[in-house]
Design a protein that fits this description.
alpha/beta; 8-stranded mixed sheet; 3 helices; 8 strands; 30% helix
Length: 202
């Protein structure tokens, strides 16, 4: 009986290990994190607005992720295996725009919006596209970035529409990320231009 119980125990242990091996193994390549650089606001993007800006960025369902998403010709969504942004997309985009505007002195202070916080201007953006468009052969064709929203200051306000598409020159992850950098630079340049017409109260 003891021998039978020992055999059953060993058999149960083998089954448990076999089940775990499926969870611990993966066919995906090791995760690589890719960063973008903020476009520093400067005089070429318009006059300094000044004051304090509170920035809030949200994403539509499906985009609130740190994955590099793809869009197929049939409208199906997927992601580039083994590639991640440093943070989830709303936080990542907030950091990029916040650093770009603050470093160039576009506003005196740029902060992430918080409930009850006071600012001269409030900028609310929604990310509606942030993906790589794939061709029929599943190779990257272009990168598409779109944000809509509004800015409200004490004396002015405006609806904002930011849309940029950039071709991908190559099939490597680095080529895709380079296209994202150009697209985000274009989005930032457009945003700075639209904000430059605002003048918050002293």
């Amino acid at each position: 009986m003891i021998a039978i119980r020992n055999c059953l125990a060993v058999f149960a242990s083998c089954l448990a290990l076999a089940g775990c091996s499926g969870l611990l193994s993966s066919n995906e390549p090791p995760v690589r994190r890719f960063d973008l650089q903020p476009l520093i606001a400067s005089a070429e993007h318009g006059p300094v607005v000044g004051g304090t800006l509170a920035l809030r960025i949200r994403a539509i369902p499906g985009l609130d992720t740190d994955r590099l998403l793809t869009m197929g010709q049939d409208g199906s969504s997927n992601y580039l295996a083994g590639a991640r942004w440093p943070d989830y997309l709303p936080e990542f985009a907030t950091s990029l725009l916040q650093r770009g505007m603050a470093a160039g002195g576009f506003f005196s202070t740029v902060v992430a919006a918080r409930m009850g916080a006071r600012a001269d201007c409030d900028l609310d953006l929604e990310i509606q596209r942030f993906h790589t468009r794939l061709g029929g052969d599943q190779q990257p064709l272009s990168v598409e970035v779109r944000m809509n929203g509004q800015v409200r200051c004490a004396t002015a306000g405006a609806e904002l529409s930011l849309d940029q598409s950039e071709p991908v020159h190559g099939a490597r992850l680095a080529d895709v990320v380079a296209a994202y950098q150009r697209a985000f630079d274009g989005i930032s340049r457009s945003l700075y231009g639209q904000l430059s017409s605002l003048s918050p109260s002293p």
